[in-house]
Design a protein that fits this description.
The chain is an all-alpha fold and 131 residues long. Helices cover 66% and strands 0% of the residues. Helix 1 packs across helix 3.
Length: 131
């Protein structure tokens, strides 16, 4: 059984190959990158991305001599209209997500309230004991 161990550095989960939708989206992004557009003010946007994904994106873009920030910007530009007026399937998914987030917020607030009021009750009981 000792010989059956896999060295961690040799084991990497490979992402599945891109599907037709992903390839079509990449073509749309590439078509948009080269088109000069009207100059617009830019806003720096920072977000968290898993480090391995960031390195994969950066390496893939460098191999094609693309700026990864251009790729990210164009992906987001293509998705904004989908969020603004989603089709039925996307809308249903977004509504379920929104409802789940609202419930999480409600539970968080309730938990905070219980912790806050619970400490007030404990303080009042301690004050009574001192008197």
């Amino acid at each position: 059984m000792e010989n059956a161990q896999i060295a961690p550095e040799l084991f990497h989960l490979q992402p599945p190959p891109p599907g037709e939708i992903e390839e079509e989206m990449m073509l749309a992004i590439l078509n948009g990158i080269g088109i000069p557009g009207e100059r617009k003010p830019l806003q720096c946007v920072t977000f968290k991305q898993p480090l391995p994904e960031y390195f994969r994106l950066k390496e893939a873009c460098q191999s094609w001599r693309l700026q990864y920030s251009d790729v990210i910007r164009d992906v987001l530009r293509k998705l904004i209209p989908v969020l603004e007026s989603p089709n039925v399937a996307v809308r249903e998914h977004l509504e379920r997500h929104r409802e789940a987030e609202i419930e999480k917020d409600r539970l968080r607030k309730e938990s905070r309230r219980k912790r806050h009021h619970g400490s007030d009750v404990e303080a009042a009981l301690e004050a009574e004991m001192v008197l």
